Structure formats: C-alpha cells, structure tokens
Amino acid sequence: MHIDARPFAYEFDLATTALVLIDMQRDFIEPGGFGESLGNDVSLLEAIVPATQRVLQAWRGAGGLVVHTREAHRPDLSDCPPAKRNRGAPTLRIGDAGPMGRILVAGEPGNQIIEALAPVAGEIVIDKPGKGAFYATGLHELLQQRRITHLLFGGVTTEVCVQTSLREANDRGYDGLLLEDCTESYFPAFKAATLEMVRAQGGIVGWTAPSSALLSALRGQEG
Ligand code: C5J
User: Fold this and answer.
1) Is 80 one of the annotated active-site residues of the chain?
2) Is 27 assigned a catalytic role?
3) 3-state class of 175 per DSSP?
4) What is the CA(141)–ligand 1 centre distance, in A?
5) Which pLDDT band holds residue 221 (cuts at 50, 70, 90)?
6) Alpha-carbon distance 122 to 103, whole Å?
7) Most buried residue, 7, 24, 147, 222, by most Cβ within 10 Å?
C-alpha cells in the first residue's frame, strides 16, 4: 500500500505496520488534568478526536495492530524524577490530587484514554514515564516480536510526546509517518513547525500526511 505523503510517497504493508496513538488521555484533553495544570487551553486538543476515531476504526477494520500510550507514573512516583515533577510552577504537580484523581498517575480517572478512543481487547497499551514511547517501556521488543517496521503516529502533544516518540522510532530503524490531522498541540505554531521539521531534508525524521490519504489507501485495499 502507499500513502500520498510528504516529502514523498510512504510505502507500507498492513502486516508490518502499527498505528501508534500517543497519550490521548483525559489528563491532556479534558479540564482538570495535567495539561490544564500547566496553564494550557486544553479545548484545542479536542479538535482531532473525530479524525483520529475515523482512522482508528478503519485501521481496526483492516486488521492492523494498534498501540496506545499513556503518560503514567507509578503511584509512589518512583519513576518520576524530581527534575520532571518540580519543573515550573504548575497549579498541580504530578502526583497531586486533582478533580480527575492524582495527576499523571497510573490507574487514576484522569490518566485513562478518552472514551472515544478507548483501547479494545488485543491492542497494546503502554504506560510510559517519559515523553518518548520507547523510553523504559519495552515497546521496541513488543514491535520486534510482531515484525513491525512501519509506524503511523497520532496523538498529543505534537511537539512533545509525539515528536519525541517519532524520533525515538526513527533512531531504532522504523519508518514513521505522522498523521497531520490526528495530532495537536496547545501551541498551533509548534504543531506546524513539528510537521515541517519531521519531513524536511528528505524526510529526515519521517513522513507526514493527512488522515484522508491513509483512509484512501485502506479503501483501495478492500474487496
Ligand atoms: C506533555 C505529552 N506535553 N503527552 N506530554 O507533557 O506530550
């Protein structure tokens, strides 16, 4: 299959490609979570939910592997370095009790993936303590076991956890594509800059494409 992408067409096989949705959690997308505690307007992120849901449904329908990540710390915060917890002056720090439970702590209501994109049986769910999906998670090994070579990325936020994960994937030898309308930032200029820097220099980090291009590729595969 191929996707009309930038800087050039992206070739992939369904059997060796995974859809990776980064941190589509209430903590980032809904009021009262981590994103808002940092002073962000979280309503901006909601805009990508319908497109991401369409991609998820189509990818599931095609039988593709789905990986969901959550930025999540252990309740004792032993995997949250002070450098991360004490940075800046948020209204609530990681581990503090907020309206959706403890901020960025595994198992808390705010730490769950939003209902519209909730994982289903058979999908991989990765709890990650850092920005990147590969750091301290075992994701690379899980993907290697399944012979995955290509990764399609969506999620939040574009320039933080999504871009870090895409770069980590690139360094590990995966061909990564970022779905432009399935990723969002609290800072529109940062999203735009990330898309540019990923595909610059002949796709130095990877490819970008609108989700419609992926959906067309999947439709072409039907019947
Ligand atoms: C942030 C993330 N922004 N998922 N996390 O701290 O991008």
Assistant:
1) no
2) no
3) strand
4) 23
5) confident
6) 27
7) 24
